[in-house]
Amino acid sequence: MSYPSALGVLVRFRQQAPTTVPEPILAMAQWCEQHQLHLLYGTPSQVSFEQGHLFLEGWCVSPQDRTWQSAPKVPLIAIYNRFPHSADPAGLEQAEALAADVVGIPFGNPISFQSLVQDKWLTYLAWRDAGLPTPETQQATQTPPLEKLKSWGLSFFKPRYGAFGEGISCIKHTKRIWQIQGEDTQALQSDEAFVAWWQKRLQQGSFLIQRGVPNYTHDLAGASIRTLLQRVPCVEGNVTDVWKAAPRVIRTSTSDPIANAARGAKVAPLETLWSEQFGKSGSRALLGVLSHLEQRAIQALTKQKILRRPKQILEVGLDLLLDPKGEPYLLEANGFPQGRLEKLAELDPSRFAEAMKQVQLHPLSQLLQLTQATRKDFA
To answer: The pTM is what?
Structure first.
């Protein structure tokens, strides 16, 4: 069926469409059909401006036969940005400028917010200045702070700009030996050897050094929580700061201190794991503490002065850890999160498949609501 307009999703898309339609995308296409819209996928280079309208050509999903179809230029009512800025900076910036400043349609997940959360240093400063619990962090310079690292005992050397746990090294100092695990695993027998290693790593880019926080249990080498927060539509058409957390995921590893699913960490629902270990009351208490901290964390980020159109931020992923007392610490933010719900849906479809579907639909609902607001309301 043909509709006069579309909701555009900017992604890194190939010249040819995938051969299958994943269930979450099918649910999004069905939702758009119910609102008489096409769900259209494309790249910034496929966005064009003609006669006062913004168009996108690319690929759309036919909900009826569950296939991808090539789509000609279709006028857009909003853009859902899932495109990494580094892949085509000029193209993405032009698309956002046309959408937000020329045509006046919502551009969900603004570039300014993606730039903020991609920068781990700026994220740390936002949380630190807001008085939130986050491990002490500093920018890595040519001269490593040896005495501080020794006093910490455990630290993490990580790229200032990075994702998926790539490029991170766990540093442990015990008995005059520097143990490096993760990126470039080795044992260094002297301070001089460690300084040489440190300076060699700095040749690869900009890095941070972060104080390590021991895990809540000694049975694990690494453990971290991922929370997906999404702005959701609220009553009476008002666009306010209402954020909803998807089911939280905990990633654990018995061998890797950098617990990331992309690195093979085990994924489990946090609520279930915590209930098994500390009972339902302990689980409810933890979730309450996390919820309060997460809301403060997202508010600290969305109040940063470098942001443009903060009310068009649709989602953010937060990485947290728990210390041996069960106290949470904020680690990082992710501007294009999935929350690892797909893993939970695979493990327990009856429990998490619907949650996974709602995670896909929340940004679309918010964008549709933004199209009904004035430019002042969502600027």
So the answer is: 0.91
